[in-house]
């Protein structure tokens, strides 16, 4: 049942129609196929070539993932199978519970990181960036007004001589 995602099966019934199905088991690179016939003497064929196996189970060791047409038959019934199974030596099988657990743990960790980022960035929104001239302040001390820059002193009436060189020029 857990191998169904790895196996694509199309059963081709050559004999009379039946609800019986092949049983395919995959472990590493070994594929075991069980014929739906109940007789003990079963003839197996692979792509038209007769195989020397007479059991209900046919075992393919070191399967290379290439598609195969298989059939098993007894005296009066024949069942066909197109096997397209992807196998690998280093694969690990995961059941549905393990996959669900991995996804749930990933979502919880992501949510935890988002909450931590929000919590630690929330306090820094209103603060100005720390510069070399800043110093720690006491509680709610009033700041004195900034010292005016003499280079940008406003023009006052009666003190035009400071800006006498800035007369408008005629075009």
UniProtKB/TrEMBL annotation:
Any one of the GO BP annotations: positive thymic T cell selection
Matches recorded under Pfam families: Ig_5
GO terms for cellular component: alpha-beta T cell receptor complex; external side of plasma membrane
Top-level taxon of origin: Eukaryota
Region feature Disordered, mapped onto this chain: 128-158
Membrane-crossing segments per the record: 96-120
Coiled coil stretches, renumbered: none
GO molecular function annotation: transmembrane signaling receptor activity
UniProt cross-references to InterPro entries, sorted A to Z: CD3_esu/gsu/dsu, Ig-like_fold, Phos_immunorcpt_sig_ITAM
Topological category with respect to the lipid bilayer: Single-pass type I membrane protein
Keywords, sorted A to Z: Cell membrane, Immunity, Immunoglobulin domain, Membrane, Receptor, Signal, Transmembrane, Transmembrane helix
Subcellular location: Cell membrane
Protein name: T-cell surface glycoprotein CD3 epsilon chain
Species of provenance: Eudyptes sclateri
């Amino acid at each position: 049942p857990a191998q169904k995602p790895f196996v694509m099966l199309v059963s081709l019934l050559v004999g009379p129609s039946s609800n019986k199905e092949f049983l395919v088991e995959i472990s590493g690179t070994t594929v075991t196929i069980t014929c739906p016939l109940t007789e003990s003497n079963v003839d197996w064929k692979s792509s038209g070539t007769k195989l020397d196996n007479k059991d209900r189970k046919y075992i393919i060791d070191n399967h290379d993932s290439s598609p195969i047409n298989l059939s098993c038959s007894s005296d009066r019934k024949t069942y066909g199978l197109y096997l397209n199974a992807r196998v690998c030596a280093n694969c690990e099988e995961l059941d549905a519970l393990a996959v669900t657990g991995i996804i749930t743990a990933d979502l919880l960790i992501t949510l935890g990181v988002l909450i931590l980022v929000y919590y630690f960035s929330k306090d820094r929104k209103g603060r100005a960036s720390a510069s070399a001239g800043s110093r720690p302040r006491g509680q709610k001390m009033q700041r004195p007004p900034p010292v005016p820059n003499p280079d940008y002193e406003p023009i006052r009436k009666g003190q035009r001589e400071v800006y006498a060189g800035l007369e408008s020029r005629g075009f």
